[in-house]
Amino acid sequence: MTLIDLLLLLLVAAICGSIGQALAGYSLGGCLVSAVVGFIGAFIGLWLARQFGLPEVFAITIGNQTFPIIWSIVGSMVLSLILGLLTRRRVIYR
Predict the structure, then answer these.
(1) What is the largest CA-CA distance in the chain?
(2) pLDDT tens track for 10-59
């Protein structure tokens, strides 16, 4: 994997992570955080797809690595929803 392949993979992961965060309605941070959320979302999404027996719908190949676009977005959305529910501030009225 070359440096250009790695940078393209980071860019695709950041885009997928930001789309997943936008669909969830909760943003965890900036561009680098979106890339991390995109990569973690790809693992979560693929795991969910395998649990339910779903096929890999849309994946791109960069270098010799395949990256699942749809499952990365779904996994990013699930991760953002879970983290948003756990870290949301609660207002206590007195």
Answers:
(1) 58
(2) 888 888 888 988 888 887 777 888 888 888 888 888 888 889 998 888 88
The three-class DSSP label of residue 75 is: helix
> Mutual orientation of helices 31-52 and 3-24 as an angle, nearest 10°?
80
Q: What single-letter DSSP state applies at residue 25?
A: T
CB 38 within 8 A of CB 17: yes
Pick from 72, 71, 68, 76: which is nearest to 24 by CA? Answer: 76
Strand intervals (E) in the chain: 59-62, 65-68
**Coil, helix or strand at residue 80:** helix
Flag whether pLDDT at 1 surpasses 70: yes
Query: In the prediction, which pLDDT does 80 show?
Result: 87
Residue 6 has pLDDT above 70, yes or no: yes
CA–CA dist 15, 37 (Å, integer): 10
